[in-house]
From TrEMBL:
GO terms for molecular function: catalytic activity. A motif (Histidine triad motif) lies at residues 96-100. One of its GO terms (biological process) is nucleotide metabolic process. This is HIT domain-containing protein. Residues 4-111 form the HIT domain. The chain holds residues 1 to 112 of 133 of the full protein. The active site is at 98 (tele-amp-histidine intermediate). Signal peptide: none annotated. The lineage of its organism: Bacteria, Bacillati, Bacillota, Erysipelotrichia, Erysipelotrichales. It comes from the Bacteria.
Length: 112
């Protein structure tokens, strides 16, 4: 395997996991844009959201929505960015579909 997110999904590389089920894993970004910056990732390798099938999209966005609510409640975030980069020109650096969930705070002290 030469995909870092496949390795994390397989448990071969450690990550700070915040959620896992049969199809999806979510873990903290190693280089966070804010406190609680989380990546939501399908376990099956697919390059980006345009190449993912509808079921995968549904599962990943469903988990992102639920986790967004949890992060907001637990961390006291007042807002949340959800974004997904597709392609090098769009800033994608890991070629395995993922959603960034970036909690935002009123006082900005928790911005990285
Ligand atoms: P992209 O730039 O592809 O949208 O986002 C990739 C994200 O994955 C980056 O924010 C980067 O910090 C994160 N990342 C890259 N390698 C690792 C890793 O090995 N572990 C974790 N937890 N995050 C990673
Ligand atoms: Zn992969």
């Amino acid at each position: 395997m030469d995909c870092i997110f496949c390795e994390i999904a397989a448990g071969n590389i450690p990550a700070k996991k915040v959620f896992e089920d049969d199809d999806v894993i979510a873990f903290l970004d190693v280089n966070p844009a804010s406190f609680g910056h989380t990546l939501v990732v399908p376990k099956q390798h697919v390059r980006n959201f345009m190449e993912a099938d509808a079921a995968t999209i549904g599962k990943v966005f469903g988990v992102a929505s639920a986790l967004g609510r949890v992060l907001q409640a637990k961390l006291g975030a007042s807002g949340m960015n959800l974004l997904s980069n597709a392609g090098e020109s769009a800033g994608q650096t890991v070629d395995h579909f993922h959603i960034h969930l970036i909690p935002r705070y009123d006082d900005r002290t928790q911005e990285a």
